[in-house]
TrEMBL record:
Family, per entry: Belongs to the thioredoxin family.
A Pfam family the protein falls into: Thioredoxin
Disulfide bridge map: C31-C34
KW rRNA-binding (keyword) present: no
Entry keyword set: Disulfide bond, Electron transport, Redox-active center, Transit peptide, Transport
Annotated NCBIfam families: thioredoxin (TIGR01068)
CDD domains: TRX_family
Top-level taxonomic group: Eukaryota
GO cellular component: cytoplasm
Species of provenance: Olea europaea subsp. europaea
Name assigned to this protein: Thioredoxin
Length: 106
């Protein structure tokens, strides 16, 4: 798995203080649609290596992050740039939807 896990302890340093745009997937192990899109996320992480940092947050293990960003359903993918949430995509979406969103912030 290319996507490194982020916790409440590492959120600020890895996501908010990153000099590169950051894609964060909010997920949980019991979430079927989350598992369906993991191969797609890994592909995007390889495709954008060096331009985009990719992380995942287990909403069961880090509920305060999910609450802070208003996560109501998973999977939710958020893109952060300069410490700010720039975009959010909810649900198991096609690759083209994620690519279009990523390209806007590179």
């Amino acid at each position: 798995m290319i996507f490194a896990g982020v916790t409440e302890a590492t959120w600020d340093s890895l996501v908010l203080e990153s000099s590169s745009p950051v894609l964060v997937e909010f997920w949980a192990p019991w979430c079927g649609p989350c598992r369906m899109i993991h191969p797609l996320k890994d592909k995007l992480a390889k495709q954008y290596a060096g331009k985009l940092n990719c992380y995942k947050v287990n909403t069961d293990e880090s509920p305060s992050i999910a609450t802070k960003y208003g996560i109501r359903s998973i999977p939710t993918v958020m893109i952060f740039k300069n410490g700010e949430k720039k975009d959010a995509i909810v649900g198991a979406v096609p690759e083209s939807t994620l690519t279009t969103s990523i390209e806007k912030f590179l």
